[in-house]
Amino acid sequence: MLLFLPILLQAYDPEIEAVMNRSRKEKQEERAAAAAAATPAAAAPARTDGKIPVPAKFAAPFQACLDQAIESPDAGIAFAQKWRIDGGGFYARHCMGFAYARAERWTPAIVAFEQAAEEAERSGEMVEAARLWAQAGNAAMASGDLPKARGDFDAALARGLPDGLEKGEVHLDRARALVALNEPDAARDSLDIALVQAPKDPLGWLLSATLARRSGEMSLAQAHIARAVQLSPDDASVALEEGNIAVLTDHEDIARAAWARAMRLAPDAPSGKAAADNLSRLPVAQPAR
């Protein structure tokens, strides 16, 4: 069985599919997130997610701009440009970045988010600036500019995000960039922080397990993939990596079950297809005597 393992484990990166899945989920959640972000400050209750309510002066046009961008990125860009001229401040640039990202025009999206972050800093809104630097980093990741992504994530963290989910997500995104840049030690540092700050995000545990598996830390890989399975039992990417780790730790029965689950959950997705290929490489199971 060891002869096929190098092929098995190099043919597919589960974190890539996980990031793809996360991106699709984020697109579905953008409208709800945008509506929550645009709550007027005067009426907003205390928040526990780290997001800053938009001041009442900007809330209505910000929401209108986001709605335009969701309906039509070009319309959102035009709205944001006009609003910026009319005094929309960094909120207008924020919406412009959002609209460019919706259109997958990553270079102008990066510029808009970075300019919004710098303007927010000049206004003394350091936490909002940090969030905008993080969005610039994600746009840079999407564009394939990994060094810029790392720099933007570093800028976000340097602005002093409070402890909690948002800080954890930025460290997780930074770890994704560092893994792609082949800097596993630095990625591990950010992942360890992400797991403390955002312990309910299954992607963090999945990436941590994958990185541990690649580094030969199999006990850590087993523990962290178990946590990912607990948090996201219906994620095919998690099931695939569970099988990868199981087969390397001589638990062929667990590997078979995990890969079969990945195939069942996402037969047409890369994770499901990779699981099917892995299963085909295993020796035929012998019936119990």
Overview of this protein structure:
- The protein has 289 residues and is mostly helical.
- It is built from 15 helices and no strands.
- The protein has helices spanning 5-10, 14-37, 56-71, 73-85, 89-102, 106-122, 126-143, 146-158, 165-180, 184-197, 202-214, 218-231, 236-248, 252-265, 270-281.
- Helix 8 runs antiparallel to helix 9 and helix 10 runs antiparallel to helix 11 (202-214).
In short:
It comes from Sphingomonas bisphenolicum. The protein is mainly α and about 290 residues long. Helices cover about 75% and strands about 0% of the residues.
Primary descriptors:
disordered N terminus; single chain; 15 helices; 289 residues
Question: What's the helix and strand layout?
Answer:
Blueprint: H1 5-10, H2 14-37, H3 56-71, H4 73-85, H5 89-102, H6 106-122, H7 126-143, H8 146-158, H9 165-180, H10 184-197, H11 202-214, H12 218-231, H13 236-248, H14 252-265, H15 270-281
Helix pairs in contact: 2-3, 2-11, 2-13, 3-4, 3-5, 4-5, 5-6, 6-7, 7-8, 7-9, 8-9, 9-10, 10-11, 11-12, 11-13, 12-13, 13-14, 13-15, 14-15
Q: Give the overall shape.
A: elongated
Record field, number of beta strands: 0
What percent of residues are in strands?
Answer: under 5%
List the total number of helices: 15
Biggest beta-sheet profile? none
> N-to-C terminal Cα separation, in Å?
22 Å
Class by alpha and beta content = mainly alpha
